[in-house]
Design a protein that fits this description.
By secondary structure, the chain is an alpha+beta fold. It has two domains: 140 residues, 2-Layer Sandwich (Fructose-1,6-Bisphosphatase, Chain A, domain 1), CATH 3.30.540; 112 residues, D-Maltodextrin-Binding Protein, domain 2. It has seven helices and 15 strands. An eight-stranded mixed β-sheet has the order 4-3-5-6-7-8-9-10, sandwiched between helices. The radius of gyration is 17 Å and the shape is globular.
Length: 262
C-alpha cells in the first residue's frame, strides 16, 4: 500500500476505536466542564477520546504533527503529515444524551488534505475519503444529491458557542432568509456530520461561520470527493479554518451564495 493508504487505514481504525469508547460510555454519568463560554462544553469522554486518538497516532507515526480540539497543537509535523482531530464533534448532544455526534479525523500532507474520516458510532456509519479516490459510506461509494431547486432543498447550519455574548447574531439573518426559500433547515449540532450528510446526499447544502479547523478538516475533503462544492460566503476559496463555510451539492452553490450575499 502507499503511505496515503496506510494513513487512511490507520485513521479509520482509530476513529472506530474512539467511537466505540463513546458508544460504550454513552448514557453514563458525565463529568462536564465549560471552555470558552457557558454553552461550550467538554466532557470526560471528549478527553478520553482525544487521549486514545493522540496515543494511537503517536505509537504508529511519532513524527506526524497533531492539531486537536482539546489540546491544540499537540506536536509539530516532522514528516510533512498533520492530523487535525475533533475527538467528539457534538459534545453538547453527547452531554445531554442526544445520539448525534461523531469522531472527525482529517489528515494533511504538505498542507493539502489527503484523508478524511467521520465516524458516527451510534449509527455505525463511517464516511471516508482519500484525495482523488472518491468518497465512501461504510465502504460503498457515495455522492452528493442532484437537487437543482432551492425550494426543494434540505439545508443545515449551526450557531457559534459565543452566541450569548454577541450583540448581533449574524446567522439569524441568514437563517431567516433561507427558511423562506428552502424546503427545510436542520440544526443538528455536529458540523462534521452536517458535511458528511451533504456528501452522501441527505443534505443539499450547508453554511456556518465561526467554526475551527478540526470541525471541517475531514468533512471538506469528503464533500469534494463526493462531487460537492465548497467556498467562503463570497465565493472565495473555502477557508481551512471553517470561519465562513458553504458546502453544497454543486448544483445549488450559486443559489446559496446568492442568498448569503443578498
Amino acid at each position: 500500500m502507499s503511505e496515503t493508504e496506510d494513513v487512511a487505514a490507520l485513521a479509520l481504525d482509530i476513529a472506530r476505536a474512539a467511537g466505540g469508547l463513546q458508544r460504550e460510555r454513552f448514557g453514563d454519568e458525565r463529568v462536564i466542564e465549560t471552555k470558552s463560554s457557558a454553552i461550550d462544553l467538554v466532557t470526560d469522554v471528549d478527553r478520553a477520546s482525544e487521549d486514545l486518538i493522540v496515543g494511537r497516532i503517536g505509537d504508529a507515526r511519532p513524527r506526524d504533527g497533531i492539531l486537536s480540539e482539546e489540546s491544540g497543537n499537540v506536536r509539530e509535523a516532522e514528516s510533512g503529515w498533520r492530523w487535525v482531530i475533533d475527538p467528539l464533534d457534538g459534545t453538547t448532544n453527547y452531554a445531554h444524551g442526544v445520539p448525534h455526534f461523531a469522531v472527525s479525523i482529517g489528515v494533511e500532507h504538505g498542507g493539502r488534505r489527503e484523508v478524511g474520516v467521520i465516524y458516527d458510532p451510534m449509527r455505525d456509519e463511517c464516511f471516508t475519503a482519500r484525495r482523488g479516490d472518491g468518497a465512501r459510506l461504510n465502504g460503498s461509494p457515495t455522492r452528493v444529491s442532484d437537487e437543482q431547486r432551492l425550494d426543494r432543498a434540505l439545508l443545515a447550519t449551526g450557531f457559534a458557542y459565543d452566541v450569548h455574548e454577541r450583540e448581533m447574531i449574524e446567522n439569524l439573518e441568514f437563517f431567516s432568509r433561507f427558511i423562506r426559500r428552502a424546503r427545510g433547515i436542520r440544526r443538528a449540532g455536529s458540523a462534521a456530520l452536517d458535511l458528511a450528510y451533504v456528501a452522501c446526499g441527505r443534505f443539499d447544502g450547508f453554511w456556518e461561520m465561526h467554526l475551527s479547523a478540526w470541525d471541517v478538516a475531514a468533512g471538506m475533503l469528503i464533500v469534494t470527493e463526493a462531487g460537492g462544492a465548497l467556498s467562503g460566503f463570497g465565493g472565495e476559496p473555502a477557508p481551512a479554518d471553517g470561519s465562513k463555510l458553504v458546502a453544497s451539492n454543486g448544483a445549488l452553490h450559486d443559489a446559496l451564495l446568492g442568498v448569503l450575499r443578498a
